[in-house]
Amino acid sequence: MGHNKKNTIIISGGGTGGHIYPAIAIANQLKAENPKLNILFVGANGKMEMQKVPDAGYRIIGLNITGIQRSLSLKNLFFPFRLLGAYMKARKIIKDNRPLCVIGVGGYASGPIMLAAQHKKIPTVIQEQNSFAGITNKNLAKKAKAICVAYEGMEKYFPKDRIIFTGNPVRKDILDVEGKREKGYKNFDLDPNRKTILAIGGSLGALSINESLKNAVDQLYQNEEIQILWQTGKYFYPNVKGLTKGNVRVTEFIREMDLAYSVADVVISRAGALSISELCLVGKPSILVPYPFAAEDHQTHNAMSLVSRDAAQIISDSEARDKLVDALFQLIGDEGKQQTLAANILKYGKPEAAKEIVAEINKVIN
Fold first, then answer.
1. 125 forms bridges with which residues in the sheet?
2. Chain segment 216-237, per-residue pLDDT in tens
3. What 8-state DSSP symbol labels residue 216?
4. What is the CATH number of domain 173-346?
5. Mean pLDDT, rounded, for 324-349
6. Which strand (E) or helix (H) includes residue 341?
7. Is 35 helix (H, G, I), strand (E, B) or coil?
8. Which CATH class is domain 5-168+351-365?
9. Which string of DSSP letters, residue by residue, matches 161-175?
10. In the chain, where are the structural domains located?
11. How far apart are CA 154 and CA 163, in angstroms?
């Protein structure tokens, strides 16, 4: 496949959808503005970016790199050797492609290539999705030319003069849920006269959310004013696939998230960076149940940045099984609270995030 090395931009990072989807959104915006650009991704072998990036139409090179295990593990003994090997390969990628700029979206895969670029005096840009900066991005920030963030107050992690508040880029269909409500009701076979709860836990599902709803399914069936669209993720689905009846719709995965948001009156969700960015754009009253084992507990930090501004509610993962369904019924019955949460969360939506990030990249290159 021929490509022009003079016009190459490298985007690095991954490990989770929260890193990969913003990276692809940035790539799409770069290509839309300059079709002659050659975009190369660098990820970690064996991680989801190695499949998702080619699916989106981009070339990717994998590094043999893993993160440090948070528990005492023999794997940590090999970490310095892997890191050195990944760094040597990253240097070769930089030498072979001579990029105009390298963009790091976080995750350990972005460390070696960003470091190699900075050593070669190639400009680097960081995109930090979370309200609690990851270790890789914090270490690379000193030499980055621009740091695009999705939350206010990030100067406690990064040099203040290089921070730009852009928000997180999301998929195009999420930017436009207005007027899709009727289509959404039809698509999911829902009743337009009932209040709709949307429960989502990411592609793998959220155990505490799933168990809370499963334990309360009789209560849900009996409530004639509500209906629930419940995405379980693939692991939990076999336990509950027989529960779809009446006002309860159970599904393993939702592809048409724009339609799901369009019908939702209240959302129950994890607090990953991407989920929160989407909720801010669609302006939905939400109960957030942060995943407690996320790196540096960043999901709790993400959630609290909204809760402290009366823009969402929070239930901890450990309390979800006892308190989530009660909190849900309380919120679904309180129109005033729903309106307050919806109005406040909308203030943090950044529909032009991809454009703003690309504008910063262009400034750095020029």
1. 103, 146
2. 999 999 999 999 999 999 899 9
3. T
4. 3.40.50.2000
5. 97
6. helix 335-346
7. coil
8. alpha beta
9. GGEEE------GGGG
10. 5-168+351-365, 173-346
11. 8
